[in-house]
Amino acid sequence: MIETSKRMLAVLLLLGSPFLLGTAQDNDTAAINRFISSQESLKNGYQAEGIRTVVTGDLNHDGVPDTAVLYTLEGQNRSNNYLQYLAVFLRRNGRLVHIAHKEVGGKSFRAIELTSIKDNVIMLKTTDYGEKDPTCCPTIEGSTRYVLNGARLKELGSKQSGR
Question: Could you tell me the pTM of the whole model?
Fold first, then answer.
């Protein structure tokens, strides 16, 4: 009887695991959505749909996967401008908590693509503007890296790979 109960408990735990995982992912998405929504109000713009990038990896040397999010706000004050932001969320007591964010790209600045977190460093691809590039179309490919330094994001430097 006890052995059967143990087996049933194991089966229930296995069946419940996808539900529990889904709930954790839903909570993470909700935390990110709340933060970006607050930024939309603060910056008087709206999030560009379908281009948010989320990657996970340890950012504060505690061995626990944290989250970096690249999102774009556009239409600030009814303009045709757009800005790209990098936000960092650390996992505390099983939940994501916003720690830092920074403007990292945008129209007439550079285009950014979040690629990964490696060895506590956020890795990004960049496309910078050449001297004669129109504002729609930067052409100079490169990369940059950011680290979490306390409660701030610090750029470690960018490299251009040329045209």
Answer: 0.81
